[in-house]
Prior knowledge:
Layout: H1 2-34, E1 38-44, H2 63-71, E2 73-79, H3 85-94, H4 98-101, H5 122-128, E3 132-137, E4 151-153, H6 160-165, H7 168-171, E5 177-182, H8 233-263, E6 269-275, H9 290-293, E7 294-300, E8 309-316, H10 320-327, E9 356-363, E10 369-377, E11 380-385, H11 396-399, H12 402-408, E12 414-415, E13 418-419, H13 420-424, E14 429-433, H14 451-467
Helix pairs in contact: 8-12
Amino acid sequence: MRKIKLLILVTLIAISFANCSKKQEETAKKINNTNKPNIILFVADDHGLDAIGAYGNPIIKTPNLDQLASEGVKFTNAYCTSASCAASRSVILSGKFGHATGSYGHVHDYHHFSTYETETSLPIIMAESGYETARIGKYHVAPEKVYHFNQVLEADPRNTVEMAENCADILKSDKPFFLYFCTDDPHRGHPFEPEEWDIPNNFGNKKEGYKGVETITYNPEDVLVPSFLPDTKQTREEIAEYYQSVSRIDQGFGKLMKMLNDTGKDKNTIVIYISDNGMAFPGAKTTVHEPGIKLPCIIKDPTKNIKNATNTAMISWVDLTPTILDMAKIEYQKENFHGTSFNSILDKSKVTGWDEIYASHTFHEITMYYPMRVVRSKNYKLIWNIAWRLEYPFASDLWASSTWQSIYKNDIEYFGPKKVQNFLFRPEFELYDLEQDKNELNNLAYKSEFHKVLEDMKTKMKDFQTKTQDPWKIMWNHDATLQGSGVHL
């Protein structure tokens, strides 16, 4: 009997120690989590640098995004790696180039293009580190097991005010949270092909408007036509619709910030605003020219003493995952990502070394195969059009746009500053000095005095492809160094 009592006593003591240890562990974890900032990653769909007040547009009404810039830092050399929605988003959430993860283009069901299941992603790592993760709006990545969020919030992705309102619970989370907030605006809206060719696309705008959203319209005569587009009636009408869609984003963003402030968590929440690619006009989206890949990036980090700042460092969306992990104080293996954290330079007025980025576009839809690789080093930019013998393929919504059709149907020689012929048929290499040639019109690749620059840039590109396991490296003189055994392990 004494033995049984002793055994019971020992068992009770062991349970007590275990419970105490568990409580200590939970307390330590809670204390550790209180030191971690909340993070909101707000991603617009097809929003270029051209349509934000903070970036110099005096016509567009984006007071809430402008306020974010005044309270933080805006980057003026921020780049996506592929100007196509799904491909770009896979990079944002994985920290790796799409050609290395199998995320070559759109993940529509008839394409069946998905990220390799062996890859991991930002939301998975955040959740494993104690974060509550939630997403709302556009997703457009696959498979779900790779890009899993703990919560999936529902709302009309065109009504950003409704989206914000439906994020109330995550903003009140007891745990540090990571909110991935993705709008459908200002992507072109259905129908992509209008009944009459010269009717402007609606960009998701509706005559009856959206509940809780003020409809802000623009006069086509007042909009700013970017220099790469033709200044036509049709272009102006479509830009006016695009602006309206952007203003809807801004209102939802403002609503989300007010809700965040009301919770009192704004002083410990990092807010990042970006777009997946450039404006949905020919010459921007689906291209690797500057209007397609050079994008807004505004970051407010209340833990840093930085306000109304401008940062000229060249950063890329492949850098976002390691940067956010760094901000969240989560340890990670740098070699697991292609990007580099720029958290340490966020509050620096002058930076050195951040003067090179790479881009990798393979296709938009699978039927729009046109792989391009890019290196920008300081002022020089090299584009390798791997399938240069093919006619440049259009995304269906861009082809049907009245902006394009106004030129194409009327057999006009120029689309903006470029000849239509040169727009459709491109050389194998394009080399530009962006300091002297912001519109990328003067191709230096075939000029003898730039031969050394071209070769140096080619070397950088090949090294990049080797480092990131780019299958398209084989197209350099049938280079098979990256070719495997043919057996998937």
